[in-house]
Amino acid sequence: MALAKINSNDYGKESELSARLSTEIKQFWQQGYFSSFSGVNKIRINYVTFTHCKNQENLVLVTGRSESYLKYQELAFDLYQQGYNIFIVDHRGQGLSQRLLNDGQKGYVKKFDDYAEDLKKFIDDVVLESATNNPSKTRPKKPHLLAHSMGGAIAVRMMQLYPLSAKSAVLTSPMIAVNYGNIANWLAQGIIYLGDFFNACLAAEANFFMGQTAFNDTPFAENELSQSTVRYQVFVELYQKNKEIQLGGVTTHWLKEAIIAKKNIFADLAKLTTPILVMQSGNDTIVCNKAQNTFCQQLHQYHKESCPEGKPFTVDNARHELMFEQDQYRSPALRKALQWFDTHST
Question: Which of 56, 87, 135, 310 has the most CB atoms less than 10 A away?
Fold first, then answer.
């Protein structure tokens, strides 16, 4: 059953967000099912689900680095209202999931593909086994994926390792590659590999990369994530109130794993058979837009259905967090994502 086409009045506005968070969104959130499962190496992975009584399309939200599903309350509500069952997982080492180092503030993962293996287990053991989602015991529905930033890279790796796992995917500001700023890639990668080598030899556990620190609030005027004062303030207050989800900067080892993930993504492009739409934030300074362009150009050569015209869908002037941006950027991005899922629903 394809979902009905939507319009911009069907989901929330900045001007209404504060009131909605304390009323309808709060009531919706309290109806969620909150639990956990054991991921790679028995790490505890926390998640939340929101399922309709009827057999609806499944949608997995794959969050970005340092995020928690707690941050996604507005988006989960909006997407649930479109008729989707919503599933959100906190990646290992962040959010409410188990931290991997003694210093839980450090952004770390042993192997980047551990994220992808966790996501696959989440889909198999939680999404496809949801009793409410499959009351007639018919074949469960493969989910759509809406993946942001680091979550975009995780989703890509999962779809490469397990090509039949998802029905379609939308990647918002995906971390195909980290943005090194004005530093040449070869130099940045050399520093990272050398730093990780010495860290492994000399330190008991992974250390922050140079300049990275424990969690701290960034004033709105200095933030590079969103131009929405309302949505950014909600994000800041959430992390102040829930200190257990706070996460600092990345370790050198995490950066090394991100480099390896990029190499694997391009090496395994031919394995991506799932229809993929890439959404690019025009003013993104967090991830590398050039890498997204190359990814789309090359992927489209293998699979014409992905990355229409061989390029991302670009939201001009938007910052990194498209789904937490001002309405003028969020609305067309959300509309485009829903149209993509609708096109690839059965």
Answer: 87
Distance CA 208, CA 113 (A): 21
First CA to last CA across the chain, in angstroms?
5
Residue type, 156: V
For residue 262, the tally of other CB atoms under 10 A from its CB is 22
Q: Tens digits of per-residue pLDDT, 71-92?
A: 999 999 999 999 999 999 999 9
The DSSP secondary-structure symbol of 48 reads E
Cα 342 from Cα 337, distance rounded (Å): 9
Q: Can you list the domains of the chain with their CATH numbers?
A: 8-343 (3.40.50.1820)
Digit-coded pLDDT (tens) for 157-176: 999 999 999 999 999 999 99
For 297, the enclosing helix (H) or strand (E) is helix 289-302
Burial 167-180 (b: 16+ CB within 10 A, else e): bbbbbbbbbbbbbe
What pTM did the predictor assign? 0.95
Q: Are the beta carbons of 37 and 122 closer than 8 angstroms?
A: yes
